[in-house]
Recover the amino acids of this structure.
């Protein structure tokens, strides 16, 4: 068989498979619609989506990587859900930020995404019911915790129902094709810090100008040919900028963790995380006594973060993440014992561990 005939045969087979996929996608959408008719309520269940994506990644025979498979099915589930319950999702804006990228990674592209000016506005819009969910940054692997998010989790009645981990790739962007006219670098202060070594080596003479967000940096660079910006790929696409140098972050593993907040709890998915905030009297051995129940009941702690309390000088609250769902027997027992030892405990939520 000639290569031309083989190519034609392969394309015909691909077309036939595409027809089969379309028919199955339509069938899946009809089944999802029927589920919506039966449930009559909140159709989005983060634990169910996590179970589906996890199962598909584990069953994936290749050659597509598991992350690509999950992305395809995330979009399919997003589109099916939108047939019955279009979601509104608030995130820390403006458009083109990493927060928007994290929101789309978690929810797919079907929801209406609403950029907010501040983290406070994301919490406020979810609590008021003007949006269904909010996505807020909580920590970066190199720059640490986002204090305002932690403070609002303590003060607000909203629940954590999901998490997103986003690899942060910083790019040098410009309207021009090169650096010949560049006179300044715009970016968010945190991004400038994340690219400090690269800037010292490659652009030591250019002033670094911190702005409110990476998206704002991209907007300024789009308007000023003597400026370059450090931002992500989404901002480059939004403002029509060229990527002069890609992945300039100093730490190749630079990752930001985001939380999904809402007014309801997520059910157990089989691979979950629980977040709490608590306090303990300031006396010898108090911290050991506070954490002892986790060890006693075999609950693995994944994070411990202290934060100054607003109640008095040198008093702290502690944000703790650990494996398992609050409905799991050993987690429930540990929480009860911890509540007995602490002066204050608030469960912020149990939610599926972030997908790939």
């Amino acid at each position: 068989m000639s290569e031309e005939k083989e190519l034609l045969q392969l394309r015909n087979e691909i077309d036939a498979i595409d027809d089969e996929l379309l028919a199955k996608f339509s069938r899946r959408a009809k089944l999802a619609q029927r589920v919506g008719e039966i449930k009559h309520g909140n159709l989005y269940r983060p634990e169910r989506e996590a179970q589906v994506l996890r199962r598909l990644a584990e069953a994936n025979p290749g050659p597509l990587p598991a992350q690509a498979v999950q992305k395809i099915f995330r979009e399919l589930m997003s589109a099916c859900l939108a047939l019955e319950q279009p979601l509104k999702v608030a995130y820390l804006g403006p458009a083109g930020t990493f927060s928007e990228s994290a929101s789309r990674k978690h929810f797919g592209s079907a929801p209406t995404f609403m950029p907010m000016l501040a983290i406070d506005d994301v919490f406020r819009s979810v609590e008021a019911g003007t949006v269904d969910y909010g996505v807020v940054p909580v920590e970066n692997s190199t720059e640490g915790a986002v204090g305002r998010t932690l403070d609002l989790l303590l003060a607000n009645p909203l629940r954590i129902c999901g998490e997103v981990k986003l690899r942060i790739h910083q790019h040098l962007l410009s309207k021009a094709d090169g650096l010949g006219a560049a006179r300044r670098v715009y970016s968010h202060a945190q991004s400038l810090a994340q690219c400090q070594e690269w800037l010292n080596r490659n652009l030591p003479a250019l002033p670094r100008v911190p702005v409110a967000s990476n998206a704002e940096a991209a907007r300024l660079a789009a308007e000023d040919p003597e400026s370059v910006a450090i931002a992500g790929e989404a901002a480059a696409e939004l403002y029509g900028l060229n990527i002069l140098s890609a992945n300039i972050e100093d730490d190749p593993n630079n990752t930001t963790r985001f939380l999904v907040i809402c007014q309801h709890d997520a059910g157990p998915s089989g691979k979950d995380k629980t977040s709490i905030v608590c306090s303990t009297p300031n006396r010898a051995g108090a911290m050991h006594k506070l954490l002892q129940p986790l060890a006693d009941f075999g609950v693995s702690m994944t994070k411990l973060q202290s934060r100054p309390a607003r109640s008095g000088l040198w008093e702290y609250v502690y944000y703790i993440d650990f494996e398992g769902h609050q409905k799991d027997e050993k987690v429930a027992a540990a929480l009860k014992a911890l509540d007995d030892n602490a002066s204050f405990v608030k469960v912020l939520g149990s939610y599926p561990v972030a997908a790939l």
